[in-house]
Structure formats: C-alpha cells, structure tokens
Amino acid sequence: MIHSNRKLMFITMLVAQAVVISFFERFIPTPFSFAPGAKLGLGNLITILSLFTLPIKDSSKVVAFRLLVSTFLSGTFSTFLYGLAGTLFSFLIMLLIKSLGPKRVSVIGISVMGGIMHNIGQLVVFALIGRSWLVLNYLPILSFSGILSGFFVGIAGNYLLTKLKPLQEFQHALPDGWHIKS
Question: Which residues cross the membrane (predicted)?
C-alpha cells in the first residue's frame, strides 16, 4: 500500500511538473524563427522521465493527464485535438523505439523521434481539419525544429536520469538492458 501511494505521488508530481513547464514555456519566445508556431517542447522532458522510471501504464497516465490538464487550463478544443494527435504519435513512437533497447537507441534518439512525431501528428490533424494535404509542405521545417528540440530535451532527460537519485526507486519498471546510472 505504501509503495502504491508513493507511486501515485510520483505520477502526480510528474504531471504537475509537466503542466507547469508547459505553461511557462508559452512565455518563452521561440528560438525557431524559421518555424512559426514551433515550441521547444520542454514538457516532453517529463515524458522522457516517465518513460524510463515508470511502467507503460503509469507513464501513459502521466502523458494523458498532462495533456488534459494543460488543455483545460489554457486551451481550446482545437488545441486539444492538435495536442492529442501530437502526444499520441510521439508517445507511441517513443515506446516503440525504446523497446529496441539501449544498444540500438539512446535517450536522445528516443526524444528526437518523439519531437518529430509530435509535429507529424499535429500536421495530420491540421490537414484533416483544413481538408488539404498541402500543409505537409511545412513538415521539413517542423521536422528540423523537432530534431533540435528533441535533441536538447534528450540531453536534459539523459542528464536527469543519471543524476536524480529518487528515480532509482522505480528502476524495477525498466525493461531488460535499461538502467539508471548512479
């Protein structure tokens, strides 16, 4: 029972951190002047942490609650749709790539693919709503911003995973081959 409560508190803490990070990220001017609308994706840092410290079921909860709470606090139905598509594409590809194991892919690689897939998910929804696939011409530019932001989020996630001792409590959730270094 105590372990279950600790895990619930950890999940809640991760969701709260992701929501706060996403909220404050809205006030940061985008460094991607070549890609209007692109964000840094700093909230994805929490997704990376949850992927490597929690079972898939609990990691999914973190991602879902982050999306719901962030949208509820400052979004609209259309931002929810874009966020849902980006989040689903991103999370699913990160899970798939992570399953390849640490000998084939790094935390940074997982983060980069998550950034790219988030953009693809949002563009697909935009294309469906706008009934035009021409918006996909924007994909190379958004992919570049996804690579850059995913790279830096991956570096930060890798650093946090190696430095934060409290995360080691959840190390049992990691698949074979993955481990948090002390």
Answer: 6-24, 36-56, 76-96, 108-129, 141-161
The beta-strand segments (E) located in the chain are: none
Q: Count CB neighbours of 58 within 10 A.
A: 17
Q: How far apart are CA 29 and CA 136, in angstroms?
A: 24
Q: Are 133 and 127 in contact (CB under 8 A)?
A: yes
Reported in sequence order, the residue ranges of 34-119 that DSSP labels E, i.e. its strands, are none
Half-sphere exposure of 114 (CA within 13 A, CB side): 34
Which residue in the block uniquely carries the two structure tokens 């985008």? 30
Q: What is the largest CA-CA distance in the chain?
A: 53
Burial 98-130 (b: 16+ CB within 10 A, else e): beeeeeebebbbbbbbbbbbbbbbbbbbbeeee
Domains in the chain with CATH codes: 4-173 (1.10.1760.20)
Query: Tens digit of pLDDT for each residue in 101-123?
Result: 888 999 999 999 999 999 999 89
Predicted TM-score (pTM) of this structure: 0.83
Cβ-proximal residues to 97 (8 Å cutoff; 6+ apart), any chain: 105, 109, 110, 113
Cα gap 87→79, rounded to integer Å: 12
Are 46 and 17 a contacting pair, CB within 8 Å?
yes
